[in-house]
Structure formats: C-alpha cells, structure tokens
Amino acid sequence: MSARHHRAFWSAALSSCVAFLNDVNDVLSFYKEAVHGEDFLASRIYRRSVSEGIPYLAAYRRSLDSGLAAYRRVLDLATDEQCPHLDRYMTAFAYFHFHCRRYRWHDIYPGLTPIDI
Fold it and tell me: Which residues of the chain have pLDDT under 50?
C-alpha cells in the first residue's frame, strides 16, 4: 500500500487518516489526562468544550463521532485488498491505547491485559 503505487487512495484518504488518529487518540487519552490534571486542561477535547461553551461530554462525543466517521471514510476509500490491512491497523491503534499502561485503562477495567512498550 505504498504511496507510490496507490497515490489516488492516499491523496483521498490522508486527511481522514489524520482525523482518525487525532480524534481516537484524544478520546482514548482522556482518562490518562484527567488523572494527570494539567494534561487534561491542555487536551483538545477540553479546549473545544470551553471554547464552544458546550459540556465536556458533548465535546467528547463530537471527537468520538469524528474519529468513527474518519474510520468509515478510510475504509470506504480502500479497495477490497486494502480494507483488511487498514481495518487491522486502526483497530490495533485503539487496542494499543486500551492495553498500554500509559493510558491507564487498566485502572477502570482491571480485566484488560496490560502491555509494556
């Protein structure tokens, strides 16, 4: 799936890939940031909540919806051959956040098997 051989796909999908990574990272980093405190105030979701004057959960939901929409756009643009690889990558990105000790999801869901990187 190199950019050289799939320029049309990457040209069309790149902004959605970036949106997916940013939004999903924000959504899955919120607990780690909330525990830290200072990071929470600097987070994109919190800043959106304050700047738009909307409840934090509404801003959180907007980021979640945006990340899921970006996920669907990427897969819609992909060929049948590309889809499983892209789906696996995006699923693994979320999996990493849930299982990496840094993001602290194990505090909330003790049944998650933590991974150390």
Answer: 2
